[in-house]
Write a structure and sequence with these properties.
The chain has a 7-stranded mixed β-sheet, with helices on both faces. The protein is 30% helix and 36% strand. The two termini are 26 Å apart. The protein has a single domain, classed as Gcn5-related N-acetyltransferase (GNAT) (Aminopeptidase, 3-Layer(aba) Sandwich). The longest helix has 14 residues. It has 137 residues and is α+β, with helices and mostly antiparallel strands. It is built from 4 helices and 7 strands; from the N terminus they run E-H-E-E-E-H-E-H-E-E-H. Helix 2 links the parallel strand 4 and strand 5.
């Protein structure tokens, strides 16, 4: 079941990410299983009108969840691009963000004590999770 309750989702994300990268999110969307446990959450921040930043934490990823978190920025907000920031040494998060379709565009050195900051982007055309929209149009 998809939920957008920041009081439930943000602490779960913070626990998974080990920090609090979500400062006053514009929107948080998560997935809760039948037992009531959060299994995935995404916060949206820094909306500029044509771009928005996401922070993603996932234990179990579903197509429905991915479709929803891509539908929000690309179809509802009509952004041209979504950004994701990942610590250079966080290989688990980097694999996840690449697996869902983001492309590495830059690494800024020395952002973290133990490495740089990776900047990933996804344009609507790159987003494979909106394919069911394309099939019906």
């Amino acid at each position: 079941m998809l939920v957008d309750d920041a009081e439930i989702l943000l602490p779960w994300m913070q626990e998974r990410l080990g920090s609090n990268p979500v400062m006053s999110p514009a929107r948080v969307i998560g997935y809760v299983n039948a037992d009531g446990a959060v299994t995935a959450s995404c916060s949206f921040n820094e909306y500029t009108g044509s771009c928005i930043t996401v922070c993603l934490a996932v234990d179990v990823m579903s197509k429905d969840f991915m479709h929803t978190i891509c539908d929000y920025p690309f179809n509802q907000l009509k952004v041209k691009q979504v950004l994701a920031y990942v610590a250079e040494n966080n290989h688990v998060s980097r694999r996840l963000i690449e697996r869902v379709g983001f492309e590495l565009v830059a690494i800024i050195p020395h952002v973290h004590a133990d490495g740089g900051q990776c900047i990933y982007t996804m344009d609507r055309e790159q987003c494979k999770w909106l394919e069911k929209d394309n099939e019906t149009s």
